[in-house]
Specification:
By secondary structure, the chain is an all-alpha fold. The chain has three helices and no strands. The termini are far apart. It is globular and about 40 Å long. The protein has helices at residues 16-32, 40-57, 72-82. The longest helix is centred in the middle third of the chain and has 18 residues, at 40-57. Helix 1 packs parallel to helix 3.
Length: 86
């Protein structure tokens, strides 16, 4: 269901408070309509690419999907780009 959003859930970063603040802004922009979501197919494709990339170099762990520690800056940059701020 792409109409459900979680802020700060299942996320491990070096600076969780900054990540949660970006999540909150991202979600607010979607809710007020200043930012449109990509199509479900585009989101699924992005998830597939991320999964393949993470599996190519990250050790297999139960939390691998939520580990952003090593690439937090890239993740924050992506959120800012999606919001048109970078």
């Amino acid at each position: 269901d792409i109409s459900l959003a979680f802020c700060g859930s299942e996320m491990a970063t070096i600076s969780n408070i900054a990540t949660y603040a970006l999540h909150a802004e991202y979600i607010c922009r979607m809710l007020v309509g200043t930012m449109a979501l990509p199509s479900e197919a585009e989101m699924s494709g992005e998830c597939d690419k991320m999964r393949t990339w993470k599996r190519s170099w990250m050790p297999e762990t139960a939390s691998r999907a939520s580990l952003v520690l090593l690439h937090q800056i890239h993740y924050h940059d992506q959120l800012l780009r999606d919001m048109g701020l970078s």
